[in-house]
């Protein structure tokens, strides 16, 4: 924290008591030996989408698939399709800049070890903590073994054929011969049977690979891949129908204003688990400077993601922005006590408070 900010704290928080406290704004959080500026947290939502992308590439002999292999309705044009597999949501803490407080400790205070998160959120006082970065476990991409090109299985006779139609005819004959050889091996009727079961397995596997590769020249190749997308939604107030994202089976995840995609909405409901504070008498609105530490009394919210047809997912999360703020007495942090305060990093509520009198 800068000297200017430290001087600001010293001038504005010179009240008597163990721990002087006030509400401020437009100042960055930080800690010095004289005081600290901190935020309390509010809840944001991280939405994780799993999207499957499927690509179809037509085979070179696709228009001959029915004539030579009796396979109907084979597409002759390439295509790419997307499918939304899953939608998950989880809460995480962000700094609530509307809840920014400054605290100054004097010679009588024991509150000299204020711990803040990287975002400036108050985590603890006189309590050592270990900040562990939340690392999302991501699945390592599967390395697919390189497959041979189907054309590598074509014989010299097929490659030297004078037309695509003739190549397709000869390839179909090759496929039928492979299938017959595989059938004879499986029945134990081949002219040259393998000596053991492992050799038989390898031979059947190789014939199956050749069959699949050559058949793909007629039926085409379909490949699928799954990707993960993350959306951050900041919750400031209840909402009933806010467009969260749009999804298209042809283009995947698109901008929220792109009408080519189907809209998916989010509904944020304040569950009103915390009573609203009593109205303040305007004549008594100005209070003398109080000492202590502000903490959250979090409420709860329900977050529901849905489309025009059905609900996709719904979860309840703690929500400090739908709760109250309370002041812990500064008397807890004077020399008569050895006080330790630990706050919940998500909600800013008291998780542990120990106030012991030194012997």
Notable features of this structure?
alpha+beta, 5-stranded antiparallel β-sheet, 359 residues, 5 helices, disordered N terminus
Describe the structure.
This protein is an alpha+beta fold and 359 residues long. The protein has five helices and 14 strands. The protein has helices at 3-12, 65-69, 156-159, 164-187, 197-219, and strands at residues 19-23, 30-31, 35-57, 79-105, 114-116, 122-125, 221-234, 239-248, 252-254, 262-270, 292-306, 311-329, 338-343, 350-356. Helix 4 (164-187) packs antiparallel against helix 5. The radius of gyration is 34 Å and the shape is elongated. The two termini are 35 Å apart. The model is unreliable at 1-18 (pLDDT under 50).
Overview in brief:
The chain is an alpha+beta fold and 359 residues long. The chain is 18% helix and 41% strand.
Which overall shape is indicated by the principal axes computed on the Cα atoms?
A: elongated
Number of helices: 5
Order of helices and strands: HEEEHEEEHHHEEEEEEEE
Radius of gyration (Å): 34 Å
| Number of extended strands | 14
What structural class is derived from the secondary structure elements?
Answer: alpha+beta
Helix coverage percent: 10-25%
């Amino acid at each position: 924290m800068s000297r200017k900010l430290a001087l600001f704290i010293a001038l504005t928080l010179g009240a008597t008591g163990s721990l002087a406290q006030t509400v401020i704004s437009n100042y960055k959080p930080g800690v010095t030996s004289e005081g600290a500026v901190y935020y309390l947290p509010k809840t944001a939502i991280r939405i994780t989408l799993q999207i499957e992308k499927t690509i179809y590439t037509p085979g070179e002999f696709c228009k001959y698939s029915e004539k030579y292999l009796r396979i109907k309705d084979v597409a002759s044009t390439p295509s790419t399709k997307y499918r939304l597999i899953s939608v998950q949501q989880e809460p995480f803490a962000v700094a609530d800049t509307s809840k920014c407080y400054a605290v100054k400790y004097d010679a009588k205070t024991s509150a000299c070890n204020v711990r803040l998160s990287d975002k400036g959120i108050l985590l603890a006082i006189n309590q050592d903590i270990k900040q562990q970065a939340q690392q999302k476990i991501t699945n390592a991409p599967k390395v697919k073994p390189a497959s041979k090109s189907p054309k590598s299985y074509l014989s010299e006779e097929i490659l030297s054929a004078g037309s695509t139609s003739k190549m397709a005819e000869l390839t179909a004959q090759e496929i039928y011969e492979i299938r017959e050889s595989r059938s004879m091996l499986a029945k134990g009727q081949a002219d040259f049977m393998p000596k053991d079961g492992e050799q038989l397995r390898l031979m059947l596997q190789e014939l199956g690979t050749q069959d699949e590769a050559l058949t793909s020249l007629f039926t085409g190749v379909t490949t699928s891949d799954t990707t993960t997308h993350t959306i951050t939604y900041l919750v400031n107030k209840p909402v009933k129908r806010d467009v969260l994202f749009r999804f298209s089976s042809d283009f995947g995840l698109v901008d929220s204003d792109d009408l080519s995609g189907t809209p998916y909405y989010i509904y944020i409901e304040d569950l009103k688990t915390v009573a609203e504070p009593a109205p303040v008498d305007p004549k008594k609105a100005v209070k003398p400077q109080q000492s202590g530490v502000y903490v959250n009394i979090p409420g709860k919210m329900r977050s529901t993601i849905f489309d025009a047809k059905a609900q996709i997912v719904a979860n309840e999360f703690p929500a400090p922005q739908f709760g109250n703020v309370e002041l812990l007495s500064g008397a807890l942090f004077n020399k008569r006590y050895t006080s330790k305060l630990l706050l919940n990093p998500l909600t800013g509520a008291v998780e542990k408070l120990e106030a012991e009198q030194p012997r």
